[in-house]
Amino acid sequence: MSKEQVPAISQYKPLYDLAFLLGATLIIFYASLTISAAFSFISGWKLTPLSIVVATIIASIFYIAAGSKGLSIPTKHLFIGLAILVLVWLVALLAAGWMYDLSWDGRDYHQRAVYELAHGWNPVKVELQPLYTYYNQWLNHYPKAPWIVAAAIYQLSGNIESGKAMNLVLIVACFMITFYLIGSYHLNPVLVTAGSLVCALNPVSVYQSFTFYVDGQVASMYAIVLVLMLIAIRHPSRLVFLTIGAALVTGLNIKFTASMYLLILTGGLFIFYAFRWYCQSSILPPLEILAAGTLVGIFVAGYQPYVTNTLNYGNPYYPVYGSQVFTQVFPFSEQAPSNFEGKNRFEKLFLATFSRSQNIYGQDSGPIKFPLSVSIRELLQYGVADIRVGGFGPWFGAAVLLAMVIWLLLFFSNKMLGMIVSLVGGLIAFTALINPETWWARYAPQWWLIVVLVMCAGLISQLKYARLFSYILLLMLALNIAMVAGSNLSQNALITWRTKQTFSELARQGETVLIYDHPFELAHLKFDQWHLHYRVVDSLSDLPCPHPFMKGIYYSPIDCSP
After folding, report:
1. H or E element: which one contains 469?
2. Do 349 and 370 fall within a single domain?
3. What integer best gives the mean pLDDT of the chain?
């Protein structure tokens, strides 16, 4: 480390400490809300706005105690941080509330779950009927943390769309935590900021940020836990381990796959410390906090579904495992491109990474493309929330190739750094490969992090060419994110604006319209919000002159005569 770098360390450390505190506080809030709701359900009560009040109080106590005692942050800076937290929530709530969720699953079973929880459903005491309706299979048995926080926000705001705010908040939390980690390596603050943004803005998180899909939260929480683990290895404080424990409480209850990924990831940290203790007889860090977070995540916050599924159906992951009906009704083979049939997970992953970005199934995904090619047609695919092929962006294949070059340079020039990258990257890859559908970006969003990991290792290395290629990789990933975000946000904002224009015009006319909204019956919330006079029909053919409203929703005047 050169002498001129020393002032930068003391100059920016308070900023990095505050960033960590902000990110940790957001995670503590989410975990506290999840636990508070779980206690309510187990006690036979329903979800109320009191859960948000309790979570806010706990997060506030944590913020003050950790900031003043744990990190010794000056009071003035704590007030600045508090203003930042308020601003983050305000922007997230306003943005999420304005932008409509236009996704299929988001408007179908995800919004149903949020609506039911907000209107008194206690999933511990009541199974929604009929049991084998497809959406009730998911509502009754799937993890519920994203639905719970969305329902609690919906109860306070009265706008179900505002429940998507947690997607944006988690992206911010991921950025803050990563900002602290990269900043600890004494890089230029611009590089620290850029690297943190690239880590936090996983394309899956980006194109699901304004939907009720939960894979974006999986991507954010996985990155948060991974980054916290890397921080814990360098600075094994109780504060860091407490934050990991809180992240596990929530992360285990976002999605079944997330629980598998995070349990393996956390197991890797346990093995690391056990090995180091065995070889060096070093003092063990507070691993009991990790164990407590895992147990609370499974048996308290996750009492429903993990415990109830096990007691009632014999498998904590029911109906994904243990239900023949479920696997027969929802075969994954029908969701993949036709040329994926008969191929193993590695072959499918290769095709999905290096083919043109497209959201197709039952059709051929086409030949491998030139890695740096991109077209308007390809970019338009990112208007959806579950793109199948090329789900990490049009340049991700090129980024993978460049990351491989950087990794080879690191491995043969700095054995220790290359070995660390290999071990951590291998652990990430292992968590992804346990999923047979690892080719689909939203089902294994952690693939993005391996490229980011290699990039960051190159930035902190002393090898000239590794740093140069890492700068190029950083720029490539940033442009890749910009293309995905620009396409997704512009398309969805335009459709939202046009839809609101239609709402406004129908409200101005004041006439009764006919609506066909199956399977998006909760569309009535928006009709009511706009004070429309409407009548729902059972079939699209019942509309005299149907007009597309939102995807899958149509309206018609009763009298179509000019």
Report:
1. helix 464-509
2. yes
3. 93
